[in-house]
Every structure is written in structure tokens, then in C-alpha cells.
Design goal:
Length: 640
């Protein structure tokens, strides 16, 4: 339902280890057309989220010569110890009219010179957080240009951000001041109509989508608090006035006919837009709570899905559900990637936490690569009615089974310890249901492809992803036994794990990553990779470990953040936990450059060209819950 490391921390893991070439014209940008230049006007570069740049000044032959062009310090961390432990600098800047616009974990919006990194302005939303926040992150902002506005008119360029305290704010791109004609003094209250339950657990963490004169946003919701959570509605607002234009609820009407009613099914990741076809694509999470569905019988459409709506009206066009009746927190965490199939058919690639990739016709949702419904194990939790089948795709990026034979340790003693832990739990394939015994969910709610999403090279028809393989122990606990379970928890469980009450359900829940005594995952490495998939052929081309925990071993690490790819034949990513920004040859997967960042790079890089130079930019501020080094750096690289 929200960011996938929101329920446990990884300190043990961390110990182990432009003249601007922008969009060809503002009308083209505003309508969402992909441009052949080297700008970066949207969170995923183009509105379809391909994270591809035609820039090629930096290429495989010279990437090793990259050097720091400038560094900017945001001053983001406000010394609130409890919140800073959660803070994650996950932003990707956008480039508009020679300026970089980005957001900090606390929703400060900053405009920088794209050439020098000098601050042009900063906006402080003055967050209201008397109850704390479930998440402390913002992945970015969006921009809209009024093509009819006279030169110099205030708010002709609008920068839009959704906040941790559930506001949608419009700012003047020139000054950073709120656009007074948008909503109430520049902001819209998103808490209206969602049936609020818990302040601080209903937020916006991803950049909103833009379609013509609409700004469209979903929400992030704190997981597993209760059966009855906030409505996971997606809404479109007039970008000039803030007036509500349409609302779509992923799980209406069935969710509200239950007693107790369920909630969520929310879209917390980034939406994609196909403006010429009047379509917006919504990735959704699970209905509440994640691990018990006794009050949400059926397949739970359209939770755990990608749904195409008419962008102008919110009218349902088609939907594709990647998990039926989710019991594993397998949200669709990634932005859908829009591309053209080999015969020119408009297509969409859906990457998932399961590591499965679904390739569909963008116009009607029909599979372009085969999808098969396969029988899965039935739940034995009283009151639970798990779905009998799950969709399997042609493309699978990560291992889908776990057994004691897969145990890993830095020595024989640790390997045996891990094997015994696996034996003691229920283990098996990807859809082994939660249990009272304790089930190892693998590749887990952190696994497969997370919010970092994918990058797509249209010249090579290759899709690039960062992957995870981390077993999570999930144990269902009768409500009457929860207090004792908390009291008797081990120090390791308290450090890494989460007890969740799931109020209204007969069972609470405990989950924790399965880590060895030395703090590394108990399954065989690699634990994180960067991979390339030929979408036309439906097969993996290469898959290489990304980062390392252990000296002398290429283990890969847990990855949060995503890749981007350029026409120079390079895939850039910094998502590993060892604080390096890396470049890979997009054809072979060979690592060809790396740079040690001053803090964790749990964000997605971007690139642009200005004044004849191509720049590479990364936000390096670390991830509190993942345990990587925190900071406040925005770093730009260029060639000498």
C-alpha cells in the first residue's frame, strides 16, 4: 500500500557492508509527447516512464572520465530523530526551461540552475506532523506550462507536489510562491472524501501525473493498521483552479459492502500517461489489510492491478490484475512503462514485486506475451478464502522458490543456522500463503522490482530493472496472543521486524526479513541485481549483481531506486546499499564505471544537456529504514 521498506529497518545489512536542449516545444511537453531532445521534463523523463534519454555525449568510451561538476546541499534533515530514521531522499529532479526542480524528504521544493547548481528558490510547505508520518519521502514534482499565458504572467509555469500531510500544492515556477488561484491559497486538501482514519498515514509520496489541464494523483497509506482504512481514490484536479474534475475508486463498490469495510487499493506509485490516446495508467496496491483477506472475499478487483482510465474523465477502459486476493503485500509498486511493440502496437510493460513482467496491449489490456493462470496453495487460516490461481507471465526475473537447500551463510555454522530457520517456517513457491506457523514470503514485499520501476531503450527494445531477492518471515498471530508475542520478541525481532495489529481482523501479524547472525539475507546471493530483458523476445538478456555486502564477494545488495538508460549505451543506477553510482554497458551488463557517493543513492538518476554539455544528476541522501548513510546531496557529473 505504500513504500515497501515501511515496516522494518536494515541496520544489520548496512553494517555489513542546457544552451538547453529541452522539449521541442511547450505544447509538445504539455500534451505529454515524447521529445527527441535531451531534456528531462517528467519524473520518468517521458510521461510513459521509460527513463530513456537520447543524450549520447557520455558514452561507453568516455564514461570513466566523468567528474563532479557541482554539488548542492539541500539541508533537508531537520534533526527530528524519530522522523529522520524514516527519511529517504528518493527524488529524481525534472528539468524545465533551464531549471532543475526537485523535492526533499520533507517536501521542500527547490529550484536550481542546471549549469551551476546554484539555488534559485526554495519553498517550505510547513508540514503538519503532530502525529508523525508513516513515510518520510518524496520522489519528485511535476510541471505544467500554460501555453496561452502572456510572457511574465505569474504561475504560467506551475510546479506541483503532493505532500506528506496530504495536500496538493501548485507553485510559480519562476518564484516558488504558491499559485493563489489554485485551490485555497495554492493548495488542495486531499483528505476530503477519503474517510480519514489516522493522521500521518494518508500521504502523497510520488510525483503527480499531468494530462492537458489536469493534475492527477493517488496516495500512500500506512499498511496493516486495520481492516478499515482510508479510501484509495485517484483524483484529477483542474491545474489552474484546483477544482475536482473526477474521482476513481479502485475497489468500489464491493469494498464498502463488507462489514467491516475494507479500504486502500491505493495508487502510491507513479502514474503513466498516454496523452494522444487520452489514457492514464494506474498501478494499485492491495486492499487492507495485506495479509488477511477474510473480510474481502473474491479476487479484489481492481486492487493489485494496472488500470487504464480515460484521462479526461476517469472512465474505466480496462484493467489487468497481477495478483488475485493479495495475501503477500504484492502491490504494483512500479510505474508502468509505455512503449511500442514490434509491430507498432501501443504496449505497456508492468514490472512487479514478484519479479514477473507482464506485457500488454496498451489499448485493451490483452497480453502480447502469454499469461497463464496457475493453481496455487490454499490458505489454512480460519476464515481466509485465498484465490485458487494466480497469473504467471512469460518473463520471470528472480527465483520464485525457497527451500533449506538455498540457505546461505558466511561460514558453515551460519549456513546451518539459516537452513534451520527456513525449515522451521512454511516455505515453498512465490504464493505460499501466510500461516500461524510462519511463512517465508519470497521474493517478498521488497522483492522483484520495487518503486524504482524500469527503464526502456527503444533502439534495443531492452527493459532494464533493479531487482531484489529477500525472504520475509510473515506470521499470523491471534489477536488474544499479540501482547505476549510482543513481550517475548527477541532483540533481533524488535530491531528488524514489525508487529501490526490489523485492527478488526481476527489475526494480527508479525513480519521480519530473514537475516543471518552476521546480518546478511539467509538465501543464496545475489540479493540484488540489475537486469536487462528483451521485451520483443520475452527473455532475460543479462542479469548481474548490483553492489556487495561482503568484501571480495559480488553478492548484490537490497536495492531501492531505479535505473535510467541513454542512447550512449549506458545504464546508470545507484540503488545498491554500498553507496556507489554505477554505469553498465547496456548490451552486455558489464560494469564500466562507478563513483562512491557521500551518502546512499536510493533514488533514480537523470540526465540532460545544456550549453553543449551532458550532465548526469543523482540525489544522494540515503534511506533511513534501509540503513544507508543519510545526507542531503544533489550531485551533477559531466565530462572534462
Amino acid at each position: 500500500m505504500k513504500n515497501s521498506t515501511s515496516t522494518f529497518m536494515f541496520p544489520a545489512l548496512s553494517r555489513c557492508f542546457f544552451l538547453l536542449t529541452l522539449v521541442a516545444s511547450w505544447p509538445a511537453f504539455a500534451s505529454g509527447q515524447t521529445s527527441p531532445d535531451t531534456g528531462w521534463p517528467n519524473y520518468g523523463n517521458d510521461p510513459g516512464g521509460t527513463r530513456y534519454s537520447p543524450a549520447k555525449q557520455i558514452d561507453r568510451g568516455n564514461v570513466a572520465q566523468l567528474q563532479v561538476a557541482w554539488t548542492y546541499h539541500t539541508g533537508a534533515l531537520p534533526n527530528d530523530e524519530d522522523l529522520d530514521k524514516k527519511a529517504a531522499f528518493e527524488a529524481t529532479p525534472i528539468l524545465i526551461e533551464g531549471k532543475l526542480f526537485l523535492s526533499t524528504p520533507y517536501d521542500h521544493v527547490i529550484a536550481l540552475s542546471a549549469v551551476t547548481g546554484a539555488k534559485l528558490w526554495e519553498f517550505d510547505p510547513k508540514l503538519e506532523h503532530p502525529y508523525g508520518f508513516s513515510e518520510v519521502t518524496s520522489r519528485g514534482v511535476s510541471a505544467w506550462r500554460d501555453a496561452s499565458a502572456k510572457s511574465g504572467k505569474p504561475c504560467a509555469l506551475r510546479i506541483l507536489i503532493g505532500t506528506l500531510d496530504a495536500r496538493l500544492i501548485a507553485l510559480d515556477g519562476e518564484t516558488g510562491k504558491p499559485c493563489k488561484d489554485f485551490g485555497m491559497d495554492g493548495e488542495v486538501d486531499l483528505k476530503a472524501d477519503v474517510r480519514m482514519r489516522d493522521p500521518g498515514d494518508y500521504q502523497v509520496t510520488s510525483a503527480p501525473a499531468i494530462y492537458k489541464d489536469l493534475v492527477i494523483t493517488g496516495s500512500s497509506e500506512g499498511d496493516n493498521r486495520a481492516v478499515t482504512l482510508e479510501r484509495g481514490i485517484v483524483r484529477a484536479f483542474d491545474v489552474r483552479t484546483g477544482a475536482l474534475r473526477w474521482t476513481w475508486d479502485p475497489i468500489a463498490p464491493w469494498a464498502y459492502q463488507n462489514t467491516p469495510r475494507t479500504g486502500a487499493g491505493n495508487a502510491w506509485s507513479t502514474l503513466s500517461v498516454d496523452a494522444p490516446r487520452d489514457l492514464v495508467f494506474i498501478p494499485t496496491g492491495s486492499a487492507s489489510p495485506d495479509y488477511y483477506g477474510g473480510f474481502r472475499k473474491g479476487d479484489n478487483k481492481w486492487a493489485n492491478s494496472v488500470v487504464a482510465l480515460k484521462a479526461s474523465t476517469g472512465e474505466f477502459v480496462w484493467g489487468f490484475q497481477v495478483v488475485h486476493h493479495d495475501l503477500w503485500d504484492y502491490d504494483v509498486a512500479s510505474q508502468p512503462a509505455l512503449f511500442n511493440w514490434k509491430d507498432g502496437t501501443p504496449a505497456i510493460a508492468i514490472t512487479t514485486k514478484m519479479g514477473r513482467v507482464f506485457v500488454l496491449n496498451r489499448l485493451n489490456g490483452a497480453p502480447l506475451l502469454p499469461v497463464e493462470e496457475r493453481p496455487v496453495q490454499k490458505s489454512d487460516i480460519p476464515g481466509e478464502e485465498s484465490w485458487p490461481t494466480q497469473p504467471a507471465s512469460t518473463i520471470s526475473l528472480v527465483p520464485e522458490k525457497l527451500s533449506p537447500d538455498d540457505a546461505f551463510g558466511v561460514n558453515d555454522k551460519e549456513r546451518e543456522w539459516c537452513a534451520e530457520k527456513i525449515k522451521a517456517a512454511r516455505y515453498g513457491d512465490i504464493f505460499t500463503p501466510p500461516s500461524l506457523q510462519g511463512t517465508l514470503v519470497f521474493p517478498s514485499n521488497v522483492g522483484g522490482v520495487n518503486w524504482g520501476s524500469a527503464a526502456y531503450d527503444p533502439q534495443r527494445h531492452l527493459l532494464f530493472v533493479d531487482t531484489n531477492r529477500l525472504p520475509i518471515l510473515v506470521k499470523m498471530i491471534p489477536q488474544a496472543e499479540l501482547a505476549d508475542a510482543r513481550k517475548n520478541a527477541t532483540d533481533s525481532d524488535r530491531l528488524h521486524g514489525e508487529f501490526a495489529r490489523q485492527t478488526g481482523a481476527p489475526y494480527a501479524m508479525f513480519r521480519t526479513p530473514l537475516l543471518s547472525p552476521s546480518g546478511v539475507p539467509c538465501n543464496r546471493p545475489p540479493w540484488g541485481t540489475v537486469a536487462a530483458v528483451d521485451l520483443f523476445e520475452g527473455k532475460k538478456v543479462w542479469d548481474v549483481p548490483l553492489g556487495s555486502y561482503l568484501p571480495g564477494m559480488n553478492t548484490g545488495t537490497i536495492t531501492l531506486g531505479g535505473p535510467m538508460v541513454t542512447a550512449g549505451g549506458i545504464v546508470f543506477t545507484s540503488a545498491a546499499m554500498d553507496n556507489y553510482l554505477r554505469a553498465f554497458d547496456s548490451d552486455s551488463g558489464q560494469e564500466i564505471w562507478k563513483y562512491q557517493l557521500p551518502a546512499g543513492g536510493q533514488a533514480t538518476p537523470m540526465t540532460y544537456s545544456i550549453g553543449g554539455k551532458q550532465y548526469l544528476v543523482i540525489c544522494a541522501g540515503g534511506h533511513g529504514k534501509l540503513g544507508t548513510k543519510q545526507g542531503d546531496y544533489v550531485i551533477a557529473f559531466t565530462l572534462p
